[in-house]
Amino acid sequence: MDRAAMREVLDRIAAAIVENHKDDDMMALVGIRTGGIHIARRLVANIQEHLGREVPLGTLDINLYRDDLVGRARQPLLRTTDVPFDVTDRNIVLVDDVIFTGRTIRAAMDAVMDLGRPARIQLAVLVDRGHRELPIAADFVGRELVTTEKQMVKVRLQEEGHPTDAVVVTS
Predict the structure, then answer these.
(1) How far apart are CA 31 and CA 61, in angstroms?
(2) d(Cα 117, Cα 110) in Å, to the nearest integer?
């Protein structure tokens, strides 16, 4: 996926979120570190333009909620969680770049639930590559990619220092 295709896909995701939440003053987006933060920022800008109002945005670090920390020799790198609003009774749209096994999203839901009791949690992803290990599905999907379990899907964004936006599949 190149820059133009990514823009088109993000516009489509934003339009679907707007359609789903057009009369919803309690909607907020939360980007999952690190891949979902820039995607969430782009979506919020697009959604705010369509709705003509501010949409709260937070960022979530899920490292302490991961289920693969047991047996790791290193301590997890902790980053900041910044959710500057009460999640209780809000309709939260979690945002990530790629959904694979579902484990990152499970950890993100646990982290959100520790902050309060949202009315609803939905999921928006740029890429769904399949191979789920948990029964988790995205509500808003930019593109589905057929991959093997061993392949890697990398989302490269200009905000992260890459020369252009791209989604790259490597072996």
Answers:
(1) 9
(2) 11
Listed in sequence order, the residues at least 6 apart from 117 whose beta carbon sits closer than 8 Å to its beta carbon are 87, 88, 89
Which of 3.90.1150.10, 2.60.120.10, 3.30.565.10, 3.40.50.2020 would CATH assign to domain 3-146?
A: 3.40.50.2020
- CA–CA separation, 30 vs 56, rounded Å? 8
- Per residue in 55-78, pLDDT tens? 999 999 998 886 665 555 565 566
> For the whole prediction, is pTM greater than 0.85?
yes
Question: Residue 101 burial by CB count (10 A; 0-12/13-18/19+): exposed, middle or buried?
Answer: middle
Strand residue runs (E) in the chain: 27-32, 57-60, 91-99, 120-128, 140-144, 152-156, 166-170
Distance of CA 98 to the CA centre of its chain: 8
Which SS3 state, helix, strand or coil, does residue 3 take?
A: helix
Q: Are 93 and 109 in contact (CB under 8 A)?
A: no
